[in-house]
Amino acid sequence: MSHDAEARIGCTTDKSTLASVTAFSFKHLSLSLSVDFATKEIAGTATWTVIVAEAAEALVLDTTAGLAVTAATVNGHTVECRSLAPHECLGTPLAVPVPEAEREPGNELTVSLTYSTSPQSSALQWLPPAQTAGKQRPYMFSQCQAIHARALFPCADAPTCKFTYDAEVTVPAWATALMSAEPQGGPQEVPAGDGSTRRFAFQQDRPVPSYLVAVAVGELGSKRVGPRTTVWAEPCMVEAVAWEFGETERFIATAEDLTGHAYDWSRYDILCMPPSFPYGGMENPCLTFATPTLLAGDRSLANVICHEVAHGWTGNLVTNHTWEHFWLNEGWTRWLENRVLTRLSPHGEELYNFQMQESLTHLEEAVSQFGATSPLTALVPPLDGIDPDDAFSAVPYEKGSLALLNHLTSVAGGHAKFETFAKAYIAAYARRTLTSADFRAFFCEWCGKEGVDCSGVEWEKWLLEPGMPDRAMQAEASRDPTRSAEGVYDYPDTLGAKATQLVERWVSCPEGQFAAEEHFLESLLARSHKAGAPLLPLAALQRMDELYQLTATRNAELRCRWQRVCLCHRAAFIVPEVVDFVATVGRMKFVRPLYRELFAWEEQSAVAVRTFMQHRDGYHPICSKMLSADLKLDGKSAKKQRT
User: Fold this and answer.
1) Is 352 one of the catalytic residues?
2) Which CDD domains match (predicted)?
């Protein structure tokens, strides 16, 4: 491997932070926060316990232009902080002077900062009552991944900086506060000048990086659904959420068995978010945030919860050292998610093979969106000067799991053998961070101990080449049918075959009427994109809708796929349905492709822009920024403006 390639896969320099991540070790954080819905601000103090690693005149922390630090002390001594030059993507670093007498390596410093957030903080969304399910009270929640924690509190906003934390959160008397930590008793009433407030206390004893600090405040109810799981939601939704996520304990227990490592986070609670939440789920320790689009009424979309459960091991426990190695979080989590679901499914390995076919479709779409030669389609992308949000796609998920980890499964000798490696991997890197080079070295070392020949693995190609994996790289994996881990392009599609056949029947005979099969829309959508032109006449789509009731479905995944199929076919009848969907849901998995497809339709491009402008304030700041870029709005709206 070339010197440059070695440098990339082993790079430990975090290009997404401006903080002093090497000069100081971040040990513990104490937060005292007050949530003000009237001003849309959080005010309080962040007190860091840090260890001096290298003598430095100042401790530099990540912040943003809108995060105002009004006072600071170091070991009780007042100091004057200063903001350094702002960066277009990375915010405004804050220099906290370290008294000369305290700069000796090994010294412990207590750094306390009094601050307040901005109403435009990219880490927070403030929802008026009208945008909540109950319509009576406002709601606030955070989303810190990837580098938005710096807009919530001054920090070293880097995955490698893991710390424990405690917090007190003061909220209005009607509200409940939740965090990615263990609650410490019930709320305490706190008299205030204009009425009473409540204070909630939390403790996180496991080290976490800044992106896993989360807070949500609203009118919330709860119901216990398992020995370590309570679901939370607005009161009118609690029962539906409790039923939908009632199988969570099965996912946790199966993941424990697969990894050989007990769940490390004491509890696995789930907060069902408002519709504007931009992701399917967020793996905040002790408190997964989940989109309400998972509430299909039949538990058919619970795989997202399984994915977030898997993050308890791959991501939260074992963490990518920097965002350039993000596949170590998401590729591994997709692998563990799919292995858990395979164990629990009556279809067994047939389900796994089908999931790999779906992953291939998602990967092809992501590569097409960026372009096959884009460096952002490499498993280890270069992020020099790039906001990690702008690099986010299915690539680290699917190329990491579908391609590399499944290839290594074949090299190891099949699923059972690779699961043995996974247990060793989790045990070795628990509560640590690692690079792609660390992973490669550990795999090769394990292979040496197990007598496995891994000399043929072309690491440079797998990790650094953009675009789809080379078919030639899959050849060895598909030669031995006893290895149940075929190449990316060679998974037997037993479960998906009926869906593929149904698509062929509709295409060859659009005037027919055929019974629906599961995953049909996924196959039809993929076929439509590859064709680059409508496959079916409008009348066939209308008959399909009459037969399968697709426009009326409650399943958000099916609804999105069906609407995208119709947009590909320039079916005008679907446009009002698309406008209604994107106006009421903020999950980027749905709204981004729908807006892109609507915008690409020349006659409807103005509708896409007008709809976005009407509803942009209802989207999370991350989603709004990405949609601005998708719709090719003015350059400033497409750039990261961290405030």
Assistant:
1) no
2) M1_LTA4H
